[in-house]
Amino acid sequence: MEQPQHPDPAEADTPPLRIGMVGYAFMGAAHSQGWRTVGRVFDLPLRPELTAICGRDADAVRTAADRLGWAGAETDWRALVARDDIDLVDICTPGDSHAEIALAALAAGKHVLCEKPLANTVAEAEAMARAAEEAAERGQVAMVGFNYRRVPATALARRMIAEGRLGTLRHVRVSYLQDWLVDPAFPLTWRLRKERAGSGSLGDLGAHIVDLAQYLAGERLAGVSALTETFVRQRPLPAGATSGLSAQPAGSAPATGEVTVDDAALFTGRFTSGALASFEATRYATGRKNALRIELNGDRGSLAFDLERLNELWFHDGTEPAGGAGFRRILVTEPDHPYLHAWWPPGHGLGYEHTFVHQARDLVHAVAEGTRPEPSFADGLQVQRVLAAVEESAAKNSLYTPVAA
């Protein structure tokens, strides 16, 4: 039974934007937080309504709906897409289902938000980008969920770079380090299977840093050279999960399955302007939980951002006299900084979850105003092409000769 929604009387005259979301795990919870909060922080042209959430397990999805604030629940995404009371479909599922759900939702006349990476293959991403362009002619919008664009500090960095504060860009260096796979006993989840996830650290973390680097630089990568590695190639299967994977007879060693994605990716790149870039994405950096850092150097200045200190941006103005020059901290909490006019007084920082509020805010405006959302499916396709080029380069560079002891 669906729960009645009771909008604030002050919102009664604002047209609704009725959301249906597929998936309710980590990203589903994060997106739900964004949709629940955005209309209570920002003045919006449309009022988001959490109409229905979808998952395959009826009891689990109903529990998730109650916990995350959704009025209804579905167990078949096709039924969700077909509902007349859904205006926008938010896709928070593993990558192997992104294309099918997004294409169906666009064909049904819905707006779409799809988590990154856009798809598991370039071919899927191309089909999604084509469908999004055709849907745009009908007034629909389709956006990819690269939420790190919505950190106020990175949005401020983009503004400063666009204003020419760095001058001609020379270098971009970016890393995204996690450690949740260090233990070889960690089970073989869907994120470690290519048919489900598309790739490993490359798609999970590398997609973020490729998009963020291009967003901040204001230009695209023109070429890459890469190495990837899978450090632990067999992992124990989760309890009860043996379908399609190697299993052991009862009483023997625990059943295991093959890891079919990369654990780490390391690549260099060149932007269209000739600026050089380096990228590192790994889930084996012991002690690093969610460490994303980017630095950009130009002939007039430099900017650096660290996600572990996400309310800060570091800037060096290379035009200042050397005797007093150096990197200085910008505390990104002022009301004229991106997104912050709607939040707290200066000095009161925001967190990771606020990026999803900002994402929802920007998407609502794109829907209401009929403007091209950023990042679009075309932007997601371009990132997918970079990821594919990294994989291709890494395959060519995969042979090496160990040094003799």
From TrEMBL:
Key words, A-Z: Oxidoreductase
Domain GFO/IDH/MocA-like oxidoreductase: 156-303
InterPro entries: Gfo/Idh/MocA-like_OxRdtase_N, Gfo/Idh/MocA_oxidrdct_glycsds, GFO_IDH_MocA-like_dom, NAD(P)-bd_dom_sf
Highest taxon of the lineage: Bacteria
Domain Gfo/Idh/MocA-like oxidoreductase N-terminal span(s) in chain numbering: 17-141
The protein's name: Gfo/Idh/MocA family oxidoreductase
Organism: Streptomyces thermoviolaceus subsp. thermoviolaceus
